[in-house]
Amino acid sequence: MCLAELPPSSSSSSSSSSSPTLLLLALNTQTGALLYDSFPDSSTQRNELDTRLRSLQPLELLLPSPPPPPPPPPPSSSSSSSASSSSQKEGGKEGGKEGGKKGGREGGVSLSLSVASEKCVAEYVREGGRKARVERLPAAEFEWGKAKEVVWKYYSRFEEEEGGEEGREEGGGVEVIDLDAEEGASAKSSALPPSLPPSFPPACLSVLGPLLQHMQTFGMSRLLLSRPSLNPFLRPSLHMTLDGVTLRDLEIFLTPHGLPGGGEGGREGGKEKGSLFWFLNQTTTSFGARLLREWVRKPLMRKEEIEGRLDAVDELAFALPPCLEEEGGVVGRFLRKGRRKGGRGGGREGGRGFPDLGAMVTALHYHKVTPKRLLLLLQTVEAVLLSLPPSLTADAEMQSSLLRSLLRSLPHTSLLHDVRSFLSLLHLPATQQEDKPHMFSDPSFYPSLSRHLALLADLEGKLSEELGRAQKEMKKPQLVFRSLRTGVNSCVEYLIELPRRDVGNVPGEWVLVSQTKEVCRLEFIYLFISFYLFIYLF
């Protein structure tokens, strides 16, 4: 979650001129869901901010660095101080009006959290044994102008990669709701990239920019650029909003002390057991537990939607349709398994044998999925699609209108065809062994793959020749290439390792990479450049 705060002088609305405006973006890295909000909060306890913290339960908070303390005023006489006081009052009035118009967009207004907001965040982190991490980012990254530049750069590059013509057609010509009512509609729409939804508050660019830069350091900024994942925190016409006091006093997600034996992998450090969510959570998959948490966090408002959800749950739990009871069907198997267990799985008990489809799809969207996980995802989706009944059968055997509409909306035939097409392209032994260059059985699917593999083989051959030359010049036939692990998923390859006393005999084309008290590691500089240029292009 990324937070910033506009001071009261930056508010454009006269009714909320005495209230600071908090800007919020919350990203769920497991599902890719991104919630945004811009809200005034005049209470000293920051009740609105507390509601959002308790509802979303972020595990990491990105906050702007606090402003430096003001310098002490210089000594002055009483006459000069009275004169300066009067001038400051006049300047304060004019500055307040001007600040209200600009809304902090010129970078002159600090977006650091106030003392009351800092206290609310600190209480959330401290309460309940949460292991929330707070990271401070430079306050300059939250300036509206700089953040807007960062957002436009990222979204422009994303649209070029994705061919974002469709996004531009949808976004163009739609008026964007702005906080500044005195600016024209053209200025409002020009503040946002076309890929952002029109309801996105332009002021929230101040937190979107820092969040994009932070996630980019982990290679996870891609989901922030996907328009369907952006939604407002408040949707009064669809869901009820439970405030922070309700969530705490009714013990919706955690209890003050928990029950004995609590903390079975819960996010609240042993405090979830005994809460309402813990009692309701009898799911058998991790994505089912996440969906149930969303249902509890956002109760429905409309009677027909509430009854439709209850009918669907009742049919799946107590009157499973014959079309889902088929032997070997993965859907019916897990529904029956969870019903027999009657326990609170949440993906930790009954769903151990069922992959987390939501997390794997998110990893695929991040471009971080491994070949083995990709194969597991495709095989699981294929098994689920084969277990689901055709829409005609579902209409005849299912009583719940919600279940029937869900099955009708699923492109069963086309999706199954696509999944099987991708499975046919994979070379199963290489995919299961994480051999990414050889994971495709059909080279025509990736035309440049053969060319890259040929280049890689040529580079490896030249490296072997240079190793042989070094063996002869140094008279060390036992010299071989070694790899140096630099992280959990990273290593430096094609290094030669020598005792420190032999470094002077190394040919000049080999350069030092690292050393210890006993050995030095070197690499061939010219082929190193060619090899890593190939890796970058590949």
Report on the structure:
The radius of gyration is 29 Å and the shape is globular. The two termini are 34 Å apart. The protein has helices spanning 47-56, 78-102, 115-126, 144-162, 165-171, 185-191, 205-216, 244-249, 276-280, 286-297, 303-318, 330-341, 357-365, 371-387, 391-397, 401-409, 412-425, 428-432, 447-474, 525-537, and strands spanning 2-6, 21-27, 34-40, 60-64, 133-137, 230-232, 481-485, 491-499, 510-515, 519-524. It is α+β, with helices and mostly antiparallel strands. It contains 20 helices and ten strands. Strands 1-2-3-6 form a four-stranded mixed beta sheet, sandwiched between helices.
How are the SSEs ordered, and which strands pair?
Elements: E1 2-6, E2 21-27, E3 34-40, H1 47-56, E4 60-64, H2 78-102, H3 115-126, E5 133-137, H4 144-162, H5 165-171, H6 185-191, H7 205-216, E6 230-232, H8 244-249, H9 276-280, H10 286-297, H11 303-318, H12 330-341, H13 357-365, H14 371-387, H15 391-397, H16 401-409, H17 412-425, H18 428-432, H19 447-474, E7 481-485, E8 491-499, E9 510-515, E10 519-524, H20 525-537
Parallel strand pairs: 3-6, 4-5
Antiparallel strand pairs: 1-2, 2-3, 7-8, 8-10, 9-10
Helix pairs in contact: 1-3, 4-7, 13-14, 14-17, 19-20
